Amino acid sequence: MLKVTDLHTHHGYLHVLNGINFELSEGELLAIVGSNGAGKSTLLGTLAGVYRPSSGSIEYKGKDITKQNVQKMVSSGICLVPERRQIFSSLSVKDNLMLGAYHRYRRDHKKVHDEYEEVLELFPRLKTMLNRPGGLLSGGEQQMLAIGRGLMANPKVLMLDEPSLGLAPLIVKDIMQILRKLCDERGATIILVEQNVKAALKVADRGCVLAHGQIVISGTSQELLNDPKVQEAYFGKMEAAKV
Amino acid sequence: MELLSQMMQLLFSGLTLGAIYALIAVGFVVIYNVTGILNFAQGEFAMLGALTCISLVNNNVPLWLAIILSIVIVAAIGGIFERTALHTARKSSVTTLIIITIGVSIVLRGAAILIWGTQVQTLPPFTDNTPITILDAVLLPQNIWAVGISIVILILMMYFFNYTFVGKSLTACVVNPFAARLMGINPEKMSLFAVIVSAGVGALAGTVIAPISGATYDMGMMLGIKAFVAAVIGGLTNAPAAIAGAFLIGILEAFTEGLWSSGLKDVVTFTFLLLILFVKPEGLFAKASGKRV
Predict the structure, then answer these.
(1) By three-state DSSP, how is residue B232 classified?
(2) Which pLDDT tens digit goes with each residue over A127-179?
């Protein structure tokens, strides 16, 4: 469904992505893990059209979309739920969700409203606070709102940048399970970028480890969880024994 | 009784001035919110609106049509200004863009001298201007028009920003431009839209004040600066606070002029601005704010 070939992205003089290659099939949950500064967010930003890649190609359903800007990416069905949630803090929960459907609101007025109900089914907590300004929600609720807002765009590929950031472990677990559910029950295709390696790999089908702008290890989640290098780098020796 | 009627009189003229400042100040806030730019050509929109309307009326266009046409014309000028001067330089720093707006204001003033000259021109009042007496204070119907139109427009704008989808997406651009882009909202389109709306509202302010104080090529500068002061008092990002600031400035000026000296009204206004900037730079009505990370 999505094919990334030899993708390079620069931030000024900084060569952040250094030849990324991967493929994503429909209905798959891919976890991309790696340490700070590995290029995870830049990778998602490039796929979302926020950053222009300096070379390489992104193919989506057989079509080259490398040069598309954000607006076109969203309309093609590639949507990014950004790091730190970035919700519209002064707007109500309902408005936040509706704005997620901005690119198709005028065309599909009715469908948007139906899907709004569906998204609320997925996040029943949000239902109780529809008129509250997004900024007053707790971190976990904001993350649910951000994911809900992303879903309102009706994406074919949903990308999430560190949804676990700053959240309590129990809420992280909830959110990861919701992502799994989206794949299993609705056939969503998800790219999940995480520093919380264990939580991400537990729900993902496949995983990639990103370091210095390159994918250094990739495989099924189980393979990655059992990989001694991954264990040592991300779980520490003590933790590794437990996994 | 003498004192009361005098106070009422000053209050009325303060409200009128405040209403005009409010319309221009809201334009400031809208453009600042959407683009991050302080548009110092904002007052010139009022000048262009007033003078265009006067020219149209002098050419036998009915007053109501002239007002609408001048709003449309100035809104179009605003759109051209955004596309040619701001959009082409959008990659530059905000400071550069602000200086561009100052440049544009000088150009517009220069063009106005060439077209309309330096004479004060007048627009007939919107309706029969027989004074009305309330509590011994004399009130001109044009003043009621000014306050009334401002209030209606301001309410419409509030409605637009808070209750319509386009308005909300504009607000979204303001609150979080990055996330707005990710939702497929095009900030450049929104910036164009913001300048057009502000220009149109500014033009309306000009046509409303023209029958009261006349119109000249250089009226925009003082109006713009006073509206800017009002916007700063409101904290620059908050439209209702800017409107409150505008009425505050208007009333302050009217009372200074009436009770002290008309030469000192600008002094008082700007002293007030400096005080605000020293004591409460986040705006007089700012609430404590924070962001969850």
Answers:
(1) helix
(2) 999 999 999 999 999 999 999 999 999 999 999 999 999 899 999 999 999 99
Q: Which domain holds residue A136?
A: 2-242
pLDDT at site B292: 46
Domains of chain B, each with CATH number or no CATH: 2-157+186-279 (1.10.3470)
Query: Which positions 95-154 of A are in contact with B (Cβ < 8 Å)?
Result: 95, 98-100, 102-103, 105, 135, 137-139, 142, 149, 153
Q: Which residue of chain A comes nearest to B187, CA vs CA?
A: A71
> Is the Cβ of A48 closer than 8 Å to some Cβ of chain B?
yes
Residue B176 · residue B168 · CB < 8 Å: no
Rounded to an integer, what distance in angstroms lies between the CA atom of residue B145 and that of residue A17? 61
Distance CA B252, CA B13 (A): 10
CATH of the domain at A229: 3.40.50.300
Q: Which pTM does this prediction carry?
A: 0.82
| Residue B182 to residue A48, Cβ atoms within 8 A | yes
Query: What is the spatial distance between Cα B83 and Cα B81, in angstroms, rounded to a whole number?
Result: 6
Query: B280: Cβ–Cβ under 8 A, 6 or more apart, which residues?
Result: B286
Number of structural domains, chain A?
1
Q: Mean pLDDT over all residues of chain B?
A: 89
